[in-house]
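Translate structure to sequence.
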């Protein structure tokens, strides 16, 4: 039996077909699992899950097939097993406790500064970057938690993720997680037949790949894409925070996310009430949200100069495509905290459950595997990545025309 029954929704793992039809709606990672129906999902499955998940969920194979391994994917699979055996996935609770404690220190300093010196322009100029840093660092913690890196208990991590993401930052953490699981499993892909694309790699104001052009066929799109190399940084910096809050909640139906959003605006309004004039209030909030825009640049620049793949290309060659669709940020170890693990984007995409504080060590191992199998490992400094992104947006924008290129 090589192919699964046509009347069943099956995916393949390690040469065996499993019927997941009744499990799709219950999948903790969301409906992204359905994208692998009919395909071998071994690489993605092992990167996202513990090895005993199938047994815990009482799945039994209904058939088998011949598992074809690409040599690079086989080597990455061996590396994953080695990292597990060597304890790379063990949680350093002290490290995470320090991260949580520091965010409390940042927001406490913001409240204290505004309570004592809210009338001072100098104080506002100090407190606003601290608030932006509080939002940025909580964004990194939400990211870790929604990947269940912190406690390895999905319920606990997701509850803390709602705290760091929705209560502290103001975006729907659950919405972010739903989109992020698609982004990880199907990084930088398009599927024209299903009108599908990586949801975290497409925005309405720019198209960074020729393969995205069919989704932009209005005159407004033409203008925006022709200017995208100019608007990229200003949009991220000045509009990014407001846009993602609106985007995350305009279809949100989960009651706990709305409760968490109410809590967010409660503490934020109280904080802003400490500023005596509207002029100073606007200055403070505008500066804080603009500086938080650095996070939005960080989130996008790791992918934006990379080309998109078709859906089948990434599913059948998963590890290689994860390496080739990401760029690492080269920086001193002392700046790892500022990039929140996003500087090791290749490592994180290959092994998304690996704790952030071990990614620098893992990068050395992945570089060696890439060297052995002649797979290009892309890394450069932050400003070089930004330059490459803007140059790529300019070149792509120059190619855009109001006609379907398919």
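Result:
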């Amino acid at each position: 039996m090589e192919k699964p029954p046509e009347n069943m929704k099956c995916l393949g793992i390690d040469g065996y077909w499993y019927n997941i039809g009744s499990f799709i709606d219950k999948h903790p990672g969301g409906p992204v699992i359905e994208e692998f129906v009919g395909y071998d999902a071994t690489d993605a499955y092992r990167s996202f899950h513990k090895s005993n998940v199938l047994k815990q969920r009482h799945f039994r194979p209904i058939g088998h097939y011949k598992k074809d391994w690409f040599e690079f994917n086989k080597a990455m699979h061996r590396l994953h097993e080695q990292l597990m055996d060597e304890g790379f996935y063990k949680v350093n609770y002290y490290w995470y406790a320090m991260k949580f404690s520091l965010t409390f220190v940042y927001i406490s300093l913001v409240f204290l500064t505004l309570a004592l010196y809210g009338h001072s322009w100098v104080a506002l100029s100090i407190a606003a970057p601290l608030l932006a840093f509080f939002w940025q660092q909580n964004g990194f913690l939400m990211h870790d938690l929604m990947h269940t890196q912190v406690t390895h208990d999905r319920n606990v991590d997701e509850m803390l993720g709602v705290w760091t993401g929705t209560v502290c930052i103001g975006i729907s953490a659950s919405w972010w997680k739903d989109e992020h699981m698609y982004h990880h499993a199907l990084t930088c892909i398009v599927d024209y037949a299903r009108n599908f694309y990586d949801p975290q790699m497409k925005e309405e104001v720019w198209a960074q790949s020729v393969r995205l052009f069919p989704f932009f066929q209005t005159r407004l799109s033409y203008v925006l894409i022709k200017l995208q190399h100019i608007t990229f940084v200003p949009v991220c910096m000045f509009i990014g925070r407001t846009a993602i809050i609106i985007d995350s909640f305009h279809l949100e139906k989960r009651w706990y996310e709305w409760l968490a959003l109410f809590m967010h605006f409660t503490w934020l309004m109280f904080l802003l009430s400490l500023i005596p004039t509207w002029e100073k209030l606007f200055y403070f909030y505008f500066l804080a949200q603009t500086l938080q825009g650095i996070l939005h640049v960080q989130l996008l620049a790791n992918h934006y100069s990379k080309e998109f793949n078709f859906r089948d290309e990434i599913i059948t060659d998963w590890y290689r495509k994860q390496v080739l669709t990401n760029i690492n940020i080269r920086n001193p170890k002392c700046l790892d905290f500022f990039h929140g693990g996003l500087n090791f984007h290749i490592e994180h995409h290959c092994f998304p459950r690996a704790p952030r504080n071990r990614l620098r060590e893992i990068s050395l191992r992945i570089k060696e595997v890439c060297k052995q199998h002649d797979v290009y490992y892309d890394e450069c400094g932050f400003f070089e990545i930004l330059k490459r992104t803007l140059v790529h947006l300019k070149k792509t924008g120059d190619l855009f025309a109001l006609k379907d290129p398919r």
